[in-house]
Amino acid sequence: MEYQETTAGQPFSLSNVSLFHGLPEEQVRELTRIAVPRLVEKGEEIFQAGEEARGFYVVKSGSIKIYRAAMNGKEQIIHIWSQGDMFGEVPVFQGTTFPASARALQRSKLLFFQRKAFRSLIRDEPDLGMNMIALLAGRLRLLVGQVATLSLKEVPQRLAAYLLLLASTQESDELRLELPKGQIASYLGTIQETLSRTLRRMAEQEVIAMRGRHISILDKSQLENLASGQQQL
Amino acid sequence: MEYQETTAGQPFSLSNVSLFHGLPEEQVRELTRIAVPRLVEKGEEIFQAGEEARGFYVVKSGSIKIYRAAMNGKEQIIHIWSQGDMFGEVPVFQGTTFPASARALQRSKLLFFQRKAFRSLIRDEPDLGMNMIALLAGRLRLLVGQVATLSLKEVPQRLAAYLLLLASTQESDELRLELPKGQIASYLGTIQETLSRTLRRMAEQEVIAMRGRHISILDKSQLENLASGQQQL
DNA sequence: CGATACTTTGAAGTGTGTCAAACTCTGTGG
DNA sequence: CCACAGAGTTTGACACACTTCAAAGTATCG
């Protein structure tokens, strides 16, 4: 029996992975040859920050969190990747260890690419190199935004921005939170309790309505004002 | 009369720039041909976050801060670059606008590389592409660290880590702060007053001694414990 | 249906930001 | 070389956003 992903199994092919986009058929076959499948269970650790890396991953299905943990138990989620995204690529090109840890948020299928094999592919295929550069640049943009957000914005602003992001991703003002709220808090750089209280305040002011993991955006323009800091909660 | 930089004019050549490291003589000449020199005064704005980019820069001398500003006047310094570093490269490869702003911390000489010209060079020279990938990966590592630091560590921990970084860079336990303390605060994700108070507490506990912009590390192991969070201030 | 994971709420504590004022360097021009 | 202006720094009193700790409540899944 085939494994069933929580996220309905959209068709996956290597040529849909943006890292491999536009590559000639022949190169994609070569990539298929060197890719090593790996199945990880929900909650399973994939690698830890500081660990020596032997290669990187592409997500075939499921979702993976990239995070850093402090000794006091708090953790900061750096990013959440799902189908078609790569992760763990930094030590393929710079240094030897992973800068952050990775853990499966649900049962996920991964493809592992060995450092050496991949580097030799990239040498022969300039387009693959350019794809990689564009992806890394995009991640820099994201991370610069994250640094600024964490340091310059307060929790209500960050949460508002996050809800608007979800709305634009899901193309609807009726949102379904795909993650437990504790994980969302960790992504926003805060804790569960604070997130809960902030959501309640937003609901009290009728910016949103909330029933469990379902959130309705009632007043989008106010949410936008909150996100940009023009307005206080 | 030649312009005099505050940082004594170390010799500069394109082949010392890590982006261009290991390139054949011929390519370096081509780079020299397309590079446009630009002189910026202390405090001068080079570009703003959100602005359309036409290319990126390499620092020939001086120093440049990359930062994001909030409407309330607070700013977060993302990085400070000096001789041999590139900056503003993200929109060359992804998107069209700068993710952050850039301003000269002192009179600086820059080299500007036009987006289109550079992209055509990189297509012909795989080594240049690999250098770029390695540099971008290194920046991702830095930024991941910064996100984690801002969210997981308190000001004393961040400051301790910063002082240790300075000590290792300057290869001495007698430090000189190259920046005004307000700028350092902005880099650490806090404000001048808090930085001042934290430094005083460190001095009171005889972890450091401070005279103006000169700081002596008195107890390095305690500073390391502070940085790792094993110890409180 | 029961166990476990997740979420909410309250009360109290703490680190950091804000505002305002005084103080101290630093470099420049007289 | 001194005086001065402006930038940079320190300090205090206060406010407040956020975390911590603890407990109860609610979903969720096998």
From TrEMBL, chains A, B:
SMART domains for this protein: cNMP, HTH_CRP
Record domain Cyclic nucleotide-binding: where: 19-139
SUPFAM superfamilies in alphabetical order: cAMP-binding domain-like, Winged helix' DNA-binding domain
Residues of the HTH crp-type domain: 153-221
Pfam families: cNMP_binding (PF00027), HTH_Crp_2 (PF13545)
A GO MF label: DNA binding
UniProt xrefs under Gene3D superfamilies: Jelly Rolls, Winged helix-like DNA-binding domain superfamily/Winged helix DNA-binding domain
Protein name in UniProt: CRP/FNR family transcriptional regulator, anaerobic regulatory protein
Lineage summary: Bacteria, Pseudomonadati, Thermodesulfobacteriota, Desulfovibrionia, Desulfovibrionales
